[in-house]
Structure formats: C-alpha cells, structure tokens
Amino acid sequence: MVAGLMALNALAIDIMLPALNQIAHDVGLTAEGVESDNRQQLIIFAYILGFGAPQLLWGPITDRFGRRGPLFVSLTGYILMAGLCVTLREFHALLAARFIQGVFSSGARLVAVSVVRDLFAGRQMARFMSLVMTIFMIIPIVAPGVGQIILLVAPWEWIFGALVVFGILMLGWTWLRLPETLPADQRRPLNLGNALGAYAQVVRTPITFGYMCASGIVFGALFSFIASSEQVFREVFGRGEDFVLWFSGIAGMLAVANFTNSRLVEKIGMRRISHAALLLFTGLSALSALITFSFGESLLWFYPLFILTFACFGLLGSNFSALAMEPLGSIAGTASAAYGFATTTVSSLIGMLIGSQYNGSTIPLMIGFVCLGASSLVIILITEKGKLFSSR
C-alpha cells in the first residue's frame, strides 16, 4: 500500500515520457530545435515543483489531524486534476493543472513516509523502505511501456485517464484497509508557532539537516535525467522507437539495487552502504563523461556505465531518508515534509537547470552528475565530521 501511494508520483511522471513530444506539439509547442524540445521538460518539472514545497504544509496538517483524512483529500485532488488534464489544449493551462496535481500528490507521498516512520525506526525503517522502493520501482519499469501502449491504441489524453483510474484504486484501497497510525494523544496542535518550532528542530538536528541537504543536491541528477531521457535516447542515440525498453532497463537495475539494500542494510549499516554508493556514483559519472569526451557518443559504453550509475540511487535513497528521519520520530510528519521538500523542490530546480543545458550530447548531463555527487559528498563529510563508513 505504501509503495502504491508513492507510485502515484512516479506514475504521474514516467507514464507520459513516451508522449512528451506529442503532448508538447498538441498544446502549442510547435517550434523546431533543441530549445523547443527542452521546453517539453516543463510538463514534468511543473508537476515536480508542485509536489515539493506543499509538503511543508502537509507535514503539520498530518501531525495535527492524523494520516487518513489528509490522505483522502490528497487522493481526491490528484484524481480531479488528472481528469482536468484530459480536457486541456493550452500549454500554460496544462502546466498549471500539472502543478496543482503535484500539490495533491505530495500529501499522499508525505502520509506514506509518515506511516512508515510511525511504525519503524533506524535500520528497520531503511530495510522496510528498501522493500517498498523495490515494489515501487515496478512503476518506472512498466509505466513508459504502458504509456507507449496507450499511444498505439488511443490519443495521449488517455494517459491522464490512466492516472485517474490508478488514483481511484488507491483511494478505495486506503479507505478500506489503511488504519490510523497516529494516535489522537500524540497529535500536535496546528498553529504557526508549533510548525515553525518543528521545522526549526529539523534544522537544528545536524544529522537530519545534513542528510536532507545532501539528498536534495544529489537527487537533482535523478530528475535531470528523467526529464531529458526521451530526448537523449531519441536524439543522441537514435532510439526513440524503443526508448521505453532502454528506460525500463535502467529502472530495473534501480529496483535490483533497492532490493539488494533491503537484504544488506541491517547487517552492513546505512552509512557504509550509502557513503560507498555516493563515491561510486561520482566516480562512474566522471568516467562516463571522460570516455564520451575522448571517443564520442556511443550507446555501447554509455548504457552499461549509466545503469550502474543510476543503480546507486537505490543504495542512497532509502538510507539517506532513514538517517534523516531517525532522530525525529516525535514529529515524523513535519520531518518527512522537510525531507520531501529537499528531495523534490530543491532537486527539481537543480534538475531543471541541468536538463536545460542539454545540447544534443550527454556530456553536460554527466558533468552535472559529477558536480552534484561531489557537492553531496562534501556535505556528508561535514555532517559526519570527516568520518565516512561508520557502522552506526
């Protein structure tokens, strides 16, 4: 169920990747060239931007009213906005609807993570989240293929119709099966002072703040690739027709990494795995950029290196999240909101900047990956006072 709630977000992004070029053309982006193609990324980034900052509001709301009520409001809004997107034919109106859909989706994501923190902590939480992410990663594997199938038999509007159907299914499932995980006696009053105090506690907790900032930076790489992936495979490698297969392979390796983390994290520890993954991510990105710069673009070496680079996110995400959330179980909703803000709004802005540098080559993308990985590593070193790979 938690994986399904988090999949609302992934589905809203990945199912439309094969259709981005067609949607952009039909809603008014008719100019030719790389710059115009880069603007189609806004259909993704509008949703992600809407998804990020509102979590700062959803956090105190769920800590005050519990998890179920806000979740049902979020799912209803998600369904309505997906339905509205079916009817829109103007680019900016579509972006606005996508932004609002992201706002509602952020509430569902926040509730999902808060429920996990209500029930688990530490390495148990990291293990559970890895299992959730393994199931969740089925969506990025199959969603582009589903989008492609829809395009073969129906216009792109039915892609948003699929979001409506999935939203209704999750609303029914949670209504019937999700218990309230935040007891009434543990709820916090909803006022500005309490909310600001809770967020101040997040900032004053070094481990939480450090891993939150490191996540916000390095996950910019994830969003930059997702938004530009269709362009990369279509324009650089000439694989537009079978893009969904190549993208699914990358997502599949990410799922394998998440499952591997779930099997190892309780034995090895969150820090050891995530710190090694961050170093590997930065090194592989640098190697890919160097080879491409020296020998030119080739799917033969780019793809194997890239799926290994992307797999590092499977060893980073759940561990960084658990490390950030562990000290703040008493304000799980607010802590989850702050972490979600960092890993969506901050990450998407960084990803948008890197994605906009796409120029028909993968080199700007990979250089961006190196810079983000190195910056995140510096923050971790400061947070951990210069000590990596601790067994704590």
Automatic annotation (TrEMBL):
Residue span(s) of domain Major facilitator superfamily (MFS) profile: 1-386
Cellular compartment(s): Membrane
UniProt key word Transport: yes
Name of a matching Pfam family: MFS_1
Coiled coil: none
Entry superkingdom: Bacteria
One Gene Ontology molecular-function label: transmembrane transporter activity
Stored SUPFAM superfamilies: MFS general substrate transporter (SSF103473)
Classification via InterPro entries: MFS (IPR011701), MFS_dom (IPR020846), MFS_trans_sf (IPR036259)
Topology term for the membrane: Multi-pass membrane protein
Keyword annotations of the record: Membrane, Transmembrane, Transmembrane helix, Transport
Keyword Transmembrane helix attributed: yes
Transmembrane annotation, as ranges: 41-59, 71-89, 128-152, 158-178, 209-228, 243-261, 273-295, 301-325, 337-356, 362-382
Example of a GO cellular component annotation carried by this entry: plasma membrane
Protein name as annotated: Bcr/CflA subfamily drug resistance transporter
